[in-house]
Amino acid sequence: MTTIFGIPLQAFLGQLLIGLINGSFYALLSLGLAIIFGLLRVINFAHGAQYMLGAFAAWLLLSHFGIGYWPTLILAPLLVGLLGAAVERTMLRRLYTLDPLYGLLFTFGLALTVEGTFRYLYGASGQPYATPALLAGGTNLGFMFLPIYRGWVIAFSLAVCLGTWLIIEKTKLGSYLRAATENPVLVQSFGINVPFLLTLTYGLGAALAALAGVLAAPIYQVSPLMGSNIIIIVFAVVVVGGMGSIMGAIITGYMLGVAEGLTKVFYPEASNIVIFVIMAIVLLIRPAGLFGRDA
User: Fold this and answer.
1) Is 285 contained in some domain?
2) What's the rounded Cα separation, in Å, for the pair 163 and 167?
3) In terms of DSSP H, where are the helices of the chain?
4) What's the whole-model pTM score?
5) At residue 258, does pLDDT exceed 70?
6) How confident is the model over 147-152, as a mean pLDDT?
7) Among candidates 187, 185, 234, 190, which has minimal Cα distance to 209?
8) Is residue 293 part of a domain?
9) Residue 280, class by beta-carbon neighbours within 10 Å (0-12 exposed, 13-18 middle, 19+ buried)?
C-alpha cells in the first residue's frame, strides 16, 4: 500500500480533498469580507448570517416553490444581495463617519437578530438539501474516489473568486469602486453616483456569502447555526491574508483549508486550532497579513 509519511495515500488524498472543499468556502466568504472591508472599511460581522441566509434561501425556494438548485445559484445570492443593499442604504451608511467599532457592533447585532429569528422559526436542527441529480455520484480516479459535487464546488468557487478579483482589479467598474472609497468627493464631482457604488459593494459582498451558502447546502445541513460556526474561522483567514486584500483572501482561504485538512491526517488533535495558530504566527511576523500593505 502506497503511503506518504506513513499515512495511506487514500487517507491523505481524502483529507486533502476535504481541505480544498473547506478552503473553497473560506475563500468565497473571506473574499466577500475583504471586499466590504477593503472598500467600505466595515468589519461585517453579519457575513456569517448572510451565508446562512443563502443556504436557507436555497432550501425555502426548493421546499416551498419547487425551484431547484441551478436557478437558486442565481436567485439566492440576488435576494440576499438585495437585502444587504437595503441594509446598507437604510442603516449601515449612517455609521460611515463614525468609529469603525460602531459598524462592527451594528453588524454583530444584526447577525444575532437574524440567527435568533431563524432559530425561532425553524429550530436549531439542520434541514437536508439534496444534491442536484446532475452532480450526484462520483468518479473513480484510480487513486481515490471523487464525489462529483465536491469537485464542482472546488472548481466553481475558484472560478467565482478569480472572476470577482478580475472585476474589482481590472475593470472600469472596479476602478470606480476603489476610487469612490478613497476620494468620494472627487469621484462625485465627475458625476458618478458614489452612494450607489457603496451600496453595490455591500450587496456584492453579501451575495458572495449567500452563494457560498447555496454551495454548502447539499454538503452540510441547512441550519441557523451554520453562519456562527464558520465566521470566526473566516475572520482568521482574512487577517492572515491581510485585511482588505482581495487576492490575499482567495489564496489564504484555500491555503488554510488545505492546512486544516492535512492537520487532521498528521495531528488530528490540532486540526481545530491550526488556523488560529497560523494566524498568531503571521501576526507576530507580519502584522499586516501575508498580502496586506504595511501602514
Assistant:
1) no
2) 6
3) 9-40, 47-65, 69-90, 100-122, 148-170, 172-182, 184-189, 194-216, 226-241, 246-266, 274-285
4) 0.93
5) yes
6) 92
7) 234
8) no
9) middle
User: Residue 249 domain-assigned?
Assistant: no
- Residues near 191 by beta carbon (within 8 Å), at least 6 away in sequence: none
Residues 63-86: pLDDT tens digits? 999 999 999 999 999 999 999 999
Residues 256 and 26: beta-carbon distance below 8 Å: yes
Looking at the structure of the chain, the number of domains it has is 1
In sequence order, what DSSP letters do the residues of 261-280 get, joined into one string? HHHHHH-GGGTTTHHHHHHH
Q: 239, 286 in Cβ contact below 8 A?
A: no
CB proximity list for 190: less than 8 A, separation 6 or greater: none
Residue 179 cell numbers, joined:
476610487
- C-alpha torsion 29→34→36→38, nearest 10: 180
- Taking each helix axis from N to C end, the angle separating 47-65 and 9-40, rounded to the nearest 10 degrees, works out to 110
Give the angle 249-224-85 at the CA atoms, nearest 5°: 55
How far apart CA 278 and CA 4 sit, in angstroms, is 23
Task: Dump pLDDT digits (tens) for 165-208.
Answer: 999 888 888 888 877 767 777 778 878 888 888 899 999 999 99
37 is in which domain, residue-wise? 13-229
5: left (phi over 0), alpha (psi -120 to 50) or beta: left
Alpha carbon of residue 9 to chain centroid: 30
In a domain, 136, yes or no: yes
Whole-Å CA distances, 52 to 211, 230, 233, 274? 10, 10, 15, 24
C-beta separation of 160 from 211 below 8 A:
yes
Confidence of residue 15 (pLDDT cuts 50, 70, 90): confident
* Identity of the residue numbered 94: R
Sequence-ordered alpha helix ranges (H) in 144-225: 148-170, 172-182, 184-189, 194-216
